[in-house]
Amino acid sequence: MKRKTNTNDYSGEFLEKLVQAITPEEQARTDARMKLAARIYKGLQAKRWTQTQLAEALHKQVSVVSKWLSGTHNFTIDTLTDIERVLHIKLLHTDQEEDDNVFNTGSKPVYK
What we know:
Oligomer: single chain
Distance between the termini: 59 Å
């Protein structure tokens, strides 16, 4: 017997409702995670490393690195600094001169 599939489950209307339910805060978090993942991936490419090599350098499972690159991982500062160290890339901005570009006197922080 053939299983009936309901094509209406993923209609444009359903997806539109899901997208509308995302708060600006949630979108900002997702965007930041995706940007970090992209920077880590670019760092891997620049070093000509595989995910396995990064995992070995950080004593992590390859599945953990894969999750990092998916853009869904909520990183700790320790993890980000470890990744920076082994890939020789900058993920965090903590220098004073960079602070001048990050902070302003307005109500919203401006990131350049």
